[in-house]
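Run: sequence + uracil -> complex structure.
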Amino acid sequence: MQARQLAILDAMGVAVYVPRGRAEPAPARASADGLPGGGGDWQALEDAVRGCRLCGLCETRTQTVFGVGNRSARLMVVGEAPGAEEDRQGEPFVGRAGILLNAMLRAAGFERGEVYIANVQKCRPPNNRDPSDEEAERCLPYLRRQIELLDPAVILCVGRIAAQRLLDTDTPIGKLRGGVYRLDGRPVVVTYHPAYLLRSPGEKRKSWEDLKLALGVLAEGSGDGNRA
Ligand code: URA
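>> structure
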């Protein structure tokens, strides 16, 4: 990563983690004044993601997939990475998995537009392969800044990759389910990815338990668990 890119992200409040073994000289602190959108707000972050060339996925993407939904939402859904349809449309979870995610949200009392949905990875990995460690480390600061800006009451990680990357753990998803974790103080609940549920519909019951857990956390936070 170039020092200038690091400085811009730093000025925007985006924490950048340089992968182990790839340390580069620390950049000078830049002022936020020169940034498009003033630095640090949603627009500046979206612009930075749109122009991002921090990993090789920028070479194969059709477009970046920033995130979608209510920027005042109390429930944030975090997935893995855009697939083919998301890459085409520029919006997360618009393919078959997205249709199931919408149904899951509706069952929990939310319309899609009431929550905020984003991925760990903002660009599609070719052939839907898992994002590499380096790709995830380069992209994760954007998600972390989205979380800071949104300040959700609960984060629902859908799928192993989202859960393990966000919680920085290798624990299998089957073991992560059922717990309430903390990310900078914010509660995180883990469930299966809708694409997995499409392949294994018998697991939907467990996912419903996870959604109820997330709703319980929301209710604890507000006394009104049915509000996004
Ligand atoms: N799977 C994800 O994890 N994210 C998407 O946006 C689409 C499918």
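>> summary
The chain has a mean pLDDT of 86. The first strand starts at residue 68 and ends at 69.
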